[in-house]
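New to this. Help decode both lines:
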Amino acid sequence: MNNIGANSFNIGYLDTLACGDSVLHRLDPRAKLIATLMFIVAVVSFDKYALSQLTPFFIYPIVLISLGGLPAGYLLKKVLLVSPFAILVGIFNPLLDKEILIQFGSIGIAGGWISFMSILLRFVLTVTAALILVSLTGFNAVCGALLKFGMPRPFVMQLLFFYRYIFVLTDEAERMVRAGSFRSFNSRAVGFKTFIPLTGTLLLRTLERAERIYHAMCCRGFDGHIRIIRAMKIRHQEIIFTLGWTFLFIWLRCYNIPLTLGALITGVLK
């Protein structure tokens, strides 16, 4: 049986991880959100041929995963799950950019391959940072931080509902796949003629169930406000966390640390 909810889209486990009690979990969500945004801005600001400059930025996810006690294997699986999108974006670069930029003896590496690898590195770094943010904070708290920063409430509520109703969609899809497997003993694949009406049925069932969930929320007092258990409060820990990482990102952005270390090592060896 193809357990869609457990094998592919179990992103609800991120909220379970956010219930931890590490030092990073106790930080104000706004501090972690600012640090993550600064990290993403620094990573995507490099030119398309940047490779060595991006490698020191792995220190951010590694430190946060270690201090937060997060499962690195689970996060890696989620990154790999959506990696085909990044591959699709850059897969044609080697065909479009054939100018040789790096020469290793008789082997030349075209700029298209370098830009393709740069896209993959940026993708891994940014997606991992976003997953870590949700794992350490929880999506409700992230949305609450966005509201504190002045993000329009309708936009934040749509973002929150989109995230929550992903689980409704995957749950309904899992039910339909399970029902289909019970009714077809020999066939594993779904034909194109069957797939189209199944997709429409899935959408209708998801909308109907989402409407029932929303009415149930309103009956239980939902008024459009996001409430989290931990109160938001900026302390010196948050200031140190945010400023420390921000200064580090700026330093890594302005200086090519791997190139400097390589030149220093080769100079010492000479």
